[in-house]
Design goal:
Strand order of the largest sheet: 2-3-14-10-16-8-7
Shape: globular
Structural class: alpha+beta
Largest sheet: 7 strands, antiparallel
Number of helices: 8
Radius of gyration: 19 Å
Oligomer: single chain
């Protein structure tokens, strides 16, 4: 099923000229320990110069629309789907390289390779996926991993503990508050991964202005608390760069320990440990004007 795209390539990708590449994983991934043995690893910009990969995913994948029973009727699944099983060639060689790189990095911890690749196409803000865990197969009773690489317009990946599971501890939420602002400080240099439209860094630049407000004596109108938090996040970002670590972004929202992980073009998030059994994740609908997004989910065999 052909997909109609309003996506515009990024200026950074058009100016770069080089093909898509992968950022190194060691020393760059940041782990967030959640609760009940669940964790999340985050690496913004895992895939660099990724517009060509996204274009291939949009136009060369035979996307399929599905319908599912719900209550007393049958409804359209609000996204397009494609599943690549064991041994099936992936639509772009960089995806094969990414899967192999992830397999090698997590070999000692996971103990088996990533084998399958499920893909979802969110055509616009009306497409979504409801709260769920990947609990078909072994993941309903065993710890495992699901690695997701995102391409296209930014969308929020939400996580929340299942009923009866403790929410994340204060260390997770404190890191979350600081790191989202830290990313805002350097988002203009990275392009479009703060929720701005893919070809515009204006939204990211406005966010970065908050970090400058403290040094400017709050002449921008930001309150002292907001300015101090932004400045603290900017310092944390600089310290993370000196150590070679990338700063993950996550923001606690709502009640019950719900977390938001913004996923932009080329970003990587890995859900591991008991995450599929003890936590749920979702991509909510949004009224904001957003273009298409493709998520590529690498899983071990018999995990779905």
């Amino acid at each position: 099923m052909a997909a109609v795209s309003s996506y515009q390539p990024s200026m950074l990708d058009m100016m770069g000229g080089a093909g898509a590449t992968l950022e190194p994983l060691p020393g760059r991934l940041v782990r967030h320990h959640l609760s009940a043995g669940a964790w999340v690893d985050v690496l913004p910009g895992f895939v660099q110069s990724s517009d060509a990969v996204f274009d291939t995913l949009l136009h060369d994948v035979d996307w399929r629309a599905e319908r599912r029973a719900m209550y007393d009727g049958v409804v359209d699944v609000p996204r397009l789907l494609r599943w690549f099983g064991r041994g099936e060639p992936l639509p772009h060689p960089l995806l094969t390289e990414a899967r192999d790189r992830l397999t090698a990095y997590y070999a000692a911890e996971l103990g088996e390779p990533f084998v399958t690749a499920g893909m979802c196409l969110y055509r616009d803000g009306r497409d979504s996926v409801a709260w769920h865990g990947d609990t078909l197969g072994r993941s309903s009773r065993e710890d495992t991993m699901v690695a997701i690489v995102s391409f296209g317009s930014p969308r929020n990946l939400m996580l929340r503990p299942r009923a009866g599971v403790a929410p994340p501890g204060p260390g997770t939420t404190a890191t979350a508050r600081a790191t989202e602002a830290a990313r805002a400080a350097h988002a203009p240099a990275e392009g479009r991964r703060l929720g701005a439209e893919p070809t515009h860094a204006a939204g990211a630049a406005r966010a970065a202005g908050a970090a400058r407000a403290y040094a400017e004596g709050r002449r921008s109108g930001a309150g002292p608390g907001e300015a101090a938090r932004a400045a603290e996040a900017a310092r944390a970002d600089r310290e993370g760069r000196r150590s070679g670590a990338r700063v993950a972004e996550a923001a606690p929202v709502g009640a019950g320990g719900t977390l938001r992980f913004p996923q932009g073009h080329g970003d990587l998030i890995v859900m591991g440990g008991s995450c599929q059994r003890t936590w749920e994740h979702a991509i909510p609908k949004t009224a904001k004007p957003v273009g298409p997004r493709v998520s590529v989910q690498f899983r071990p065999i018999n995990v779905a």
